[in-house]
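Batch job 17 of 40 flagged for manual review because the log was empty.
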Amino acid sequence: MQQLHDAPLAPLTTFRLGGPATRLITATSDAEVISAVREADASGTPLLVIGGGSNLVISDKGFDGTALRIATKGFELDGTKLELAAGEVWTDAVARTVEAGLAGVECLAGIPGSAGATPIQNVGAYGQEVSSTITEVVAYDRRAGETVTLRNADCAFSYRHSRFKADPERYVVLRVRFELEDADGLSAPLKYAETARALGVEAGDRVPLASARETVLKLRAGKGMVLDPEDHDTWSAGSFFTNPILTEGEFTAFHARVLDRLGADAQPPAFPDGNGHVKTSAAWLIDKAGFVKGYGEGPARISTKHTLALTNRGEATTEDLLALAREVVAGVRDAFGITLVNEPVTVGVSL
């Protein structure tokens, strides 16, 4: 278990932002993870758990406490059952499931970060969410002081949310278990229209697994959503804001503001989300509020490839990023009466 003091955290995040931690521990086994967590809890030391760093916005002042980087390894496949250690690189794990001919996470290719973070955020893209294939999550319960196994139904999964995200100080994910599908080398039925169009098929069709993965990677790369050290459009946390979910009444009021601002022919994106709710597009809101691709003049700007990504152009600080985020939130609220919610976890700062 490696320990460093006054350790830079920016290199451990995809934003490449944030100050140092008082102490940084890198754990390579579940036992080391648990030991570090117990030590911090026993001494009352603030603890920051870091996986792939793809969903973190850390203060320029850094973190006054122990940062625990989970670097555990483990990819165990038994038939259609898959168990991943929390520190496994997610996009590599997806590639291996495709190579094994198993469907269920192929459209989640290219998402940066670690396997242990996927249930926390209920990671999803291109018509798939991990909650549809996760069977169990093994975690250290800091409140009980023991390792527990939570079944899918116990995880309270919803859109970009889970029991783990709702109570971030309680659980440290150690392992994630999945049930995949053997569909004779074919993908799960495609649910996302953009993916189906790119593949020249209809929504609901299956395609060869490798084709589905490669197509998603191309779509993501075109939006700056595949990590590339040379491309500042990828120095981001991917989608910075979640898609708003509105009640029918809220959507009606929103629609009226759209018509007033954009004209009688304007139609905002609307997707039924169950229980009388409607999901709309954060990217559409941002764009129509005037924050187009490449917006900004400082070192933090909107991606030139996708309006949902806020980026570090190389010399930004966390405060530069937050200033841009606040400007976007205020602009969308003024234009459409909707307050965007940030998707990345903030450490020592807030919008």
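Reviewer: the log was empty due to a logging misconfiguration, but the result itself is present. The first helix runs from residue 30 to 43. Unflagging and moving on to job 18.
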